[in-house]
Amino acid sequence: MRRSRIVVPLALVVAAALAGCTDDEGDPGPVPPTSSQAAGPVSLSFAVWGSGPEVDAYDRAVDAYNTEHPETKVKVKAYGTHSDLLAALEDGGPQPDVFLVSRGDLQQVRERELNRPIGALLDERDVDFGDGYSRVALEAFSGDRDLQCMPYGISPMVIYYNKALVDFPAMAERGLDVPTVDDENLQRRPSWSLEQFQVAADYASRPRKGIGGFYVAPTLRGLAPFVYSGGGEVFDDDQSPTSLSFSSDDTRSALEDVLPVLRDPKLGLTAEQLSQKTPLEWFREGKLGMIAGFRDLVPQLRSTAVDFDIMPMPVVGDAATVGDLTGVCIGARSDAVAEAADFLVDFVSTDAVSTVAAAGYLAPANTQVALSDAFLQPRKRPLHSAVSNNSIRSMRVAPLLEDPAALEDAVAAPLKELLEDEVLDSDTLSALTDQIDEASKAVLSPPDTESPSPDSSESSDSGG
Predict the structure, then answer these.
(1) Ranges of Low complexity compositional bias (predicted)?
(2) 3.40.190.10, 3.20.20.60, 3.40.640.10, 2.60.40.420: which CATH number matches 33-155+324-370?
(3) Residue 318 to residue 153: CA distance in whole angstroms
(4) Taking the model in full, what pTM does it have?
């Protein structure tokens, strides 16, 4: 997206015109300062979350804005996680003028009326973002026929792999079925099947040396790309789900295809290893061939000696993945909406997003930046950063939920059994998928717990 032109507010235009006028009595003298001039620059608060280097990148973008716009002073307020930021928004204290939001938190933000829709504000500032953002990104932050927040980050789940353990050229020399990965022509889009993924995991796995082939989290989000790719559905409805859909015929069929690979104990880390360190720690130490993850892993892996690259999620039937999405919102209680909108427009501009993307954590929703060296960083790992861009078109966005974490917690136990139970025959699969769907209903469609009215109680008593 081009750095957007910001329309000067009409009041300032009128004030400037009046300041240049004279009447018959001659020069009236200096124009008295307006209240905003007398009060100094307008102060804005900008709430973000992330690690130290991530916040430093936001600070650099904000510092550039403050330098270019002395009439406004933006101050960054940083939190450790998106959950910490959301809790601060909900605690009733001072609200930020502008804030980052995880798409998974958007439902809570909207229900508590913490944000202000931005469609009209962008129109007033002549922002043309139609070709600069993917449809999936814009739809993810839209609601009630308006853009609720501006898409900022869109990071599809991909497979990170250790090139020393998953050595495609060496595998090809041995006659193994490997994907075509061109390290010279980065415009070629690599892809691979579940069978090729299994071959790679088997090649990387060296149990005697304590090296695991791959790790995929036993969670809804971890399983979702495989379910979708196999022709199944995670939710019974993508807009207003009342249950998960694991017990449906299509999803059970998809699970029957993928679970033999995902459950193979010879290909993964042992329970003992997982009790000692996280999968990411094992990958960083060169003891894990592949791990599913998002763009935020890149800086953490660049600090290691591991030569890593990325591949899209393996394909069962059709390409599919899920993603992390972030947006930028304007606070509903902001007293400086115009200034907040001006800052938001600048913060999502190509120059500002490029500044943040250079730190390596952000997979930008701004497609111009995503296609530039600011994101692709061709002289740094991963070599095939474009895989993230290519995966967006096959990304499935989860429905907006009031409490996504509660849903994960509700189904955690049966999901774990699904992936780790020693015996998984058709009866066990049916029982576990039924259990998963039933457990999900407590979160997605809880029973009505409202107390009966006095009138209904009296009617019930008299009718007994």
Answers:
(1) 445-464
(2) 3.40.190.10
(3) 24
(4) 0.89
- N-to-C CA span, the chain: 69
Do 158-321+398-444 and 33-155+324-370 have the same topology in CATH?
A: yes
What's the mean pLDDT in 135-153? 97
Peptide bond into 169 cis (omega under 30): no
| Distance separating alpha carbons of residues 174 and 262, to the nearest angstrom | 24
- Tell whether the torsion through CA atoms of 61, 67, 71 and 76 is positive or negative: positive
* Longest pairwise C-alpha distance within the chain: 97
Strands (E), 217-356: 288-293, 308-311, 323-331
Among the listed residues 149, 95, 153, the one whose alpha carbon sits nearest the alpha carbon of residue 122 = 149
Distance from C-alpha of 358 to C-alpha of 327, rounded to nearest angstrom: 18
Q: Using one digit for the tens of pLDDT, what is the confidence trace for 334-378?
A: 999 999 999 999 999 999 999 999 999 999 999 999 999 999 999
**Domain spans in the chain, listed from the N-terminal domain onward:** 33-155+324-370, 158-321+398-444
Q: Cβ distance 90 to 108 under 8 Å?
A: yes
Give strand pairing partners of 102: 326
Strand order in the sheet with 288-293: 212-215, 288-293, 158-162, 308-311
Cβ atoms of residues 321 and 156 within 8 Å: yes
Q: What is the mean pLDDT of residues 414-418?
A: 96
Q: CA–CA separation, 121 vs 124, rounded Å?
A: 5
Cα–Cα distance for residue pair 49/93, rounded to 1 Å? 18
* pLDDT for res 39: 67
Q: 165, 211 in Cβ contact below 8 A?
A: yes
How do strand 72-79 and strand 308-311 relate by DSSP bridges? unpaired
Q: Of the candidates 416, 433, 437, 435, which has an alpha carbon nearest to the alpha carbon of residue 425?
A: 433
* 395 beta partners: 321
Distance CA 206, CA 154 (A): 34
Mean pLDDT of the 445-455 span: 70
- Per the CB < 8 A criterion, the answer to whether 341 and 118 are in contact is yes
Report the SS3 class of residue 172.
Answer: helix
As to burial, measured by CB atoms within 10 angstroms (0-12 exposed, 13-18 middle, 19+ buried), residue 377 is: middle
303 CB-near residues (< 8 Å, 6+ apart)? none
